[in-house]
IclR family transcriptional regulator
Amino acid sequence: MVARIATILRAFDEDHDTLSASELAERTGLPVATAHRIAGEMVAEGLLDRDGRLYSIGTGLWERGELAAVSLRFREIALPFLLSLYEVTAENVHLAILDGQEALYVARLIGHRSVPTISRMGGRLPLHTTGVGKALLAFQDEAFLADFFAKPLHRATLHSRVGEAGLREELEAIRASGFSMTNQEMTLGNASIAVPIFTEDGPPYAAVGLVTHLNRSDQRRSVPLLKEAATGISDALGVSLDGGRRRWRDLLH
């Protein structure tokens, strides 16, 4: 039953935020009657909401999801630094963590001036086409990189880099400079700049970035601001309530 519930939850995504019982059945491979019955039980438990014939992720599930370590601790610690970065730049501010071989966006600040992006909180984007993704990818070990490049890479736009040799050269430059840049590699017209959040316990598993219109991208101004924010987050993550040090990855589990 737990596996079936998880299958139903995974049927929802950004493009399918509401689904009927028949659509749930189609996307999960469950019989319609089974999908309808389990969805009804999930509504009763607050895991799904129902409006007529359509189901959506329930507010009860969202409420419990906010208790996850990545929300309750990591994002809350990082938020003041992200707000300061947004106040200075008025651009899209992203905080992402490495999850598998993707960048998982755990915080996003936008404003009236910010350019549209396809990123969203709780969404995933490729490592090789995003600023935060490249900032994370560059500092992983060779075993991770070998596994990453063993699979074909998707080209999101004509400007996306998908060749291993070219990407490895770019990752080497990121390691040397401490920041990454992308120009129209995920969304046409947009540029991103990002830096990893370094800690004391191995490769970075989080990065902070800015996404701007290509014409407003300013590396000389943005990189120092991003590095200041990343250093502040790293320092805040490393201090526990009793004054001791802790592994920041413990905040995510």
